[in-house]
Amino acid sequence: MRPIVARIDTAALAHNLLVAKRLAGPARVLAVVKANGYGHGLARVGRALRAADGFAVLSLDEAATLRAQGLSHPIVLLEGFFHPDEIAEIARRRLQPVLHREDQVDALARARVDHKIDVFLKLDTGMHRLGLARKPWLAALERLRAIPHVGNITLISHFAQADDPAVGVAGQLATFKEAAQGLAHPVSLAASAALLRYPESHGDWVRPGIMLYGASPFAGETGADIGLLPVMHLESKLIAVQNVRKGEGLGYGHLFTAPRDMRVGVVACGYADGYPRHAVTGTPVLVEGRPSRTLGRVSMDMLCVDLSEIGHAHVGSPVTLWGDGVPIETVAAAAGTISYELLTALAPRVRVEES
Ligand SMILES: *Cc1c(COP(=O)(O)O)cnc(C)c1O
């Protein structure tokens, strides 16, 4: 068996949820578990986060997986329904679609269902991805109020630059407040970044995703810096040790040339496992619990690490690619990406263990 494993610490998930709840204060917490629970396994994450007030997903399949775990929480479909055919199941499973287009309101008005459907109505406050502009949004709200099978209506929007301290949420928040002035509906605006930094944006439902998995949404900061615990620990072992002579090249393209005689470890982990191919030489790893760094190009099934300072490392030595002692944010930054992408790109071939 290949020694690579993604160890998922479910107690860390529960801890991070508590941090989110504490920050949220009176606001309720919708745990965002799309993309297979950010790569951690949807059913597992749902169970570990059952103390959340609700869940947010994208698809009916994901909602069904959560319901199959016995979770009776509110479940929000962040992109609503993709086809009117889905409305019957939405009603039956008591799911709450985000409505972001007028034709979704039309379809809901025409639907024949046995249960009331609670909905979120999305205002575009400046991200220009999903949502209606102010006028059609207000018109849609009037229409929804008149549909007998529509239950509670929550007003929702999403920030484009909450993770950029130089911009923040002030502009979009002002746009939202102006549009929603005088409307007596609950409000949901904040994902992790706004939950962490902008209490004035919390509203009634916050929607943390990445922070539940232990990572910070802010560049240059790690989850540990803000009291979060990493949930996914990507671990493997050395499957070979090489002595490379001064001046010799290493790996594909000989991207790394040994500046002196050195011992190099070969780790059973490559880009086909979800480790980023663009991680540069010097990306941090732990070998035998000691800090080390990657060397040269990451290949499909392997990568190389520096054993210069770890004389006792040998075939079978444990390696941490990310997790405790190796912040995933640092690995992501070394590859020109973000923790979200690494977590959600964990390959199906990697064994997952719960701890
Ligand atoms: C993914 C998503 C979130 C969670 O964002 P994080 O940055 O992971 O906290 C919240 N709201 C919406 C609409 C999303 O799509």
From TrEMBL:
<dbReference type="GO" id="GO:0030632">
    <property type="term" value="P:D-alanine biosynthetic process"/>
</dbReference>
<dbReference type="Pfam" id="PF00842">
    <property type="entry name" value="Ala_racemase_C"/>
</dbReference>
<feature type="binding site">
    <location>
        <position position="300"/>
    </location>
    <ligand>
        <name>substrate</name>
    </ligand>
</feature>
<keyword id="KW-0663">Pyridoxal phosphate</keyword>
<feature type="domain" description="Alanine racemase C-terminal">
    <location>
        <begin position="231"/>
        <end position="355"/>
    </location>
</feature>
<comment type="pathway">
    <text>Amino-acid biosynthesis; D-alanine biosynthesis; D-alanine from L-alanine: step 1/1.</text>
</comment>
<comment type="similarity">
    <text>Belongs to the alanine racemase family.</text>
</comment>
<feature type="binding site">
    <location>
        <position position="129"/>
    </location>
    <ligand>
        <name>substrate</name>
    </ligand>
</feature>
<dbReference type="InterPro" id="IPR000821">
    <property type="entry name" value="Ala_racemase"/>
</dbReference>
<dbReference type="GO" id="GO:0005829">
    <property type="term" value="C:cytosol"/>
</dbReference>
<protein>
    <recommendedName>
        <fullName>Alanine racemase</fullName>
        <ecNumber>5.1.1.1</ecNumber>
    </recommendedName>
</protein>
<dbReference type="InterPro" id="IPR001608">
    <property type="entry name" value="Ala_racemase_N"/>
</dbReference>
<dbReference type="Pfam" id="PF01168">
    <property type="entry name" value="Ala_racemase_N"/>
</dbReference>
<dbReference type="InterPro" id="IPR009006">
    <property type="entry name" value="Ala_racemase/Decarboxylase_C"/>
</dbReference>
<comment type="function">
    <text>Catalyzes the interconversion of L-alanine and D-alanine. May also act on other amino acids.</text>
</comment>
<dbReference type="InterPro" id="IPR029066">
    <property type="entry name" value="PLP-binding_barrel"/>
</dbReference>
<dbReference type="GO" id="GO:0030170">
    <property type="term" value="F:pyridoxal phosphate binding"/>
</dbReference>
<feature type="modified residue" description="N6-(pyridoxal phosphate)lysine">
    <location>
        <position position="34"/>
    </location>
</feature>
<dbReference type="InterPro" id="IPR020622">
    <property type="entry name" value="Ala_racemase_pyridoxalP-BS"/>
</dbReference>
<feature type="active site" description="Proton acceptor; specific for D-alanine">
    <location>
        <position position="34"/>
    </location>
</feature>
<keyword id="KW-0413">Isomerase</keyword>
<feature type="active site" description="Proton acceptor; specific for L-alanine">
    <location>
        <position position="252"/>
    </location>
</feature>
<dbReference type="GO" id="GO:0008784">
    <property type="term" value="F:alanine racemase activity"/>
</dbReference>
<dbReference type="InterPro" id="IPR011079">
    <property type="entry name" value="Ala_racemase_C"/>
</dbReference>
